[in-house]
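step 3/5: co-fold with calcium ion
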Amino acid sequence: MRILLVEDEPEMAAALSAALKGYDMVVDHVPTLADAEEAIAADVHAAVLLDRRLPDGDGLSLIPKVRARADGIPIIVLTARGDLADRIAGLDSGADDYLTKPFSVEELLARLRAVLRRPAGLQSSHMRAGRLTFDFSHREASVEGRLLELPRRELLVLEALLRRLGRTVLRPTLEEAVYNFDDEIQSNALDTHVSRLRRKLTDANAGVEIHGIRGVGYLLKQQT
Ligand code: CA
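step 4/5: write tokens
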């Protein structure tokens, strides 16, 4: 298994690399966001371990780029910042898990195993919520076996919401999931995609609903 480690502290990086190598993992270590972006473009890693305080910015800014290029890769954020607001920011930005330094290698390995078992990880490319099934590898949504015809951007919104089922996905995260770097984003375009998607999910009786938090973001919930 090949792991991408994004960490600028040489001692931390060396210790983690050595420890993970002992568990049959190949570790590619990069010290900056710029190097990490190049590395994820190759799309060969099973998971990303991501420090937050990096010389060229906050590690969290890498997450939408990982999602855009190498969709199902689990990301574990490693950081010295451990307070609640930072943990929420980390998870809301699309990370699969969050580990506060210092941590034991055993704990990191356990978290890695856990994220690799999740639907967004390598072993399953499907996720079910309500009566909706989403196939991440083909990016198709269906309700009880009937394919939902959705334009690409609505599919991308749905996918981003499903990956954080039951939790708020912030507007910038959704916008970055939906638009390429060179697209011009109109301020209300996201809301238009969401409202169309919401209507289609209702019409298809998908058993999930999209809730909006004004100015903050959206979340997808299973109907009870
Ligand atoms: Ca650092």
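step 5/5: annotate
The longest helix spans residues 189-203.
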